[in-house]
Every structure is written in structure tokens, then in C-alpha cells.
Amino acid sequence: MQGAILFVGFSVLAVLSFREAGGVRGFSQNLPNDVNSFLGVGEVGVIPAASLAVVIAVGVLATPSYRQRIYSATNTATVRRSFLLVGILFALFAIIPAIAGMSARVLNPDMANSDQAFPFLATEVFPVWLGGFLLVSGLSATASSGDSDAITAVTIFLRDVYRMIVGRLPAEENVVLYSRIGLAVVMSVAFVVTIFATSVIDYITLMISTVLSGLFVAAVLGKFWPRATWQGGIACMVGGSATALAINASESWTGFWGNPVIPSLLAALLAGVAVSLLTPRRDVTEEEALRRLGEERSPVEAEPGAGSLGWRAEG
User: How many whole angstroms separate alpha carbon 243 and alpha carbon 260?
Assistant: First the structure.
């Protein structure tokens, strides 16, 4: 339902704002030439534009909630088909926010913060009834991402972090309480981090560069390089995060790269390879790893007092 409201609302927003801004003629006459360049490279520069494309790709490939959806699929064919459909929809939808943003710039050239484009169109350009519907669509866009990520974070907290510290899953009578505590902690940390963000795009790109770039490299090495070790995976995440934070602290480096995802990926790759080569080879085969994963995700009845957090790993 959130997805349907999101697609319908933003499609209506793009069409109406495009017409309100004068269409193609209005764009060509009222937008700077750099904005009308291919993929906006003339506006932001080649390297920052490439960094933006890379950071979006890394965000999609490394987001933990996507892997949780894979675990819940019936079979491999379902996963491949669903991701193909999502990719097609993603490509079609990508043009809609761009049209809305350029329309807002035409209608309000003095807008200082691009984050105000959507509220400006919804509250000042269109009638109240239509603006309300568009605001609900924007809320659906936020909720559809926020709720799945929150569920994933709490699941990881209870299934992995808690089990790693305590040595077992929470008792059934504590599952709801611990879930609420985990959700409160996750939401509080997310809120604190957003205080330091100047715009939505800056926040998203910084978080992906800092948190997900190293995780992405660790996953790729673990999948395709037999020599990779768990120590190398940790080095990927530490090296990527440290590099992203160091570059973000320098205005000159940030201005050159746009966002730190590219150097963060390179640093994570070098750190992961170096540490993997310096640590002992892993002695667990892929078959053994799959067996252990299946046991860990097996029904909780096999683990007395574990609660209702387990699920069956089929296939």
C-alpha cells in the first residue's frame, strides 16, 4: 500500500509540476545550462556525479533489509524475478524526483535548500486537497524505507548481537520487551545522527559511505575471493568508515569527491585484502557455512527457551 501511494503520488507530482513549470520550454529557458547537461554533470562535476551514482548503487547492494527479504523468499527464482522487477521500477521511477526538483527550481529560483522542493510544491503550488495527497505520498516514501530498516536493525540486535554477547536467544517472555528496547535505541541513534545533517542527500550519502561501503566490500570479497577471512571483513568495515569520516572532515576533499564513497570503497578493499593475507586461511567450507547458517535459522523449538525469533531456512 505504501508503494502504491508512493508511485501514484509522485507520478502526479511530476506531471503537474512539469506542466506548472512550463514543460520542456520552461526548463530550457529558466534553468542554467549546466543543470540541463547530461545527468547534471555540468552542474556538479564529473567526479561528484560519479560518486553520487556509486553511492546509490552501494546503498542498494549493501542494505541489510534487502538480504532479509532474500532470506524470506520461497526460492531463488522468486528472488531473481523480484529483483528484476524492482530494478525496472527503480529505473522508471528515477526520473520522477528529478522532474519535480527541476520544476521547483524553475518556480522558485531563490530556493536555498533542495530539501524544500517537495514541501514547496505540495504546499504553495497546488491546491490544499492535492497538496495533502502529495504530502501523504512523501510520508509513504519515508515510512516504506524506515519501517523495513527498523525491523532489520531490531532483528539483527536480537538474533545476532544479543546472541553473540549472551550466547543464546532471548527467552520468549522477554522478546517483546527487548524488541521495544532495541527499537527505541535504533530510533534514538538515528535521530541524533540526523541532527548533524544539512540536507537529506548529504545525510544519505554520508551514511552509505561510512556504514555500508565497507560492508559491501566485505560481502563481495567473502563471495568471490576464497582467501578472504573474517578478520579481513572487519578490516573492510573499519577502513571504509575511517576513510569516509576523514574525507568528510575536509572541505577540500569533500568538494573534490562530492561524497567519500569512492575512496572509502578503495580503502576498504585494500584493508580487507591486506588483513586477509596476513591472517590464517579459513577452514570452514561453503557447505559447512551453509549448514551452520541453516541451523542458526532453524525453528526455535530446537533451542529451549529461545522464544519466537527463529525461522526455517528453506533450500
Answer: 8
pLDDT of residue 268: 96
122 vs 216, which has greater pLDDT?
216
In a shared domain, residues 208 and 173: no
Mean pLDDT calculated for residue range 181-205:
81
Do 315 and 79 form a contact (C-beta atoms < 8 A)? no
Do 70 and 186 reside in the same domain of the chain? yes
Residue with cell 530539501: 115
Contact 22, 105 (CB under 8 A): no
Report the share of the chain in percent with pLDDT over 90.
Answer: 18
Provide the residue range defining the domain that includes 260.
196-303
Q: CB-based contacts of 90: which residues, under 8 Å, 6+ apart?
A: 60
127 pLDDT more than 90:
no
Domain boundary among 192, 207, 239: 192
Work out the mean pLDDT of the chain and round it to a whole number.
Answer: 82
Q: 128-141 burial by CB neighbour count: b if 16+ within 10 A, else e?
A: eebbebbeebbebb
Q: Considering the entire predicted model, what is its pTM?
A: 0.74
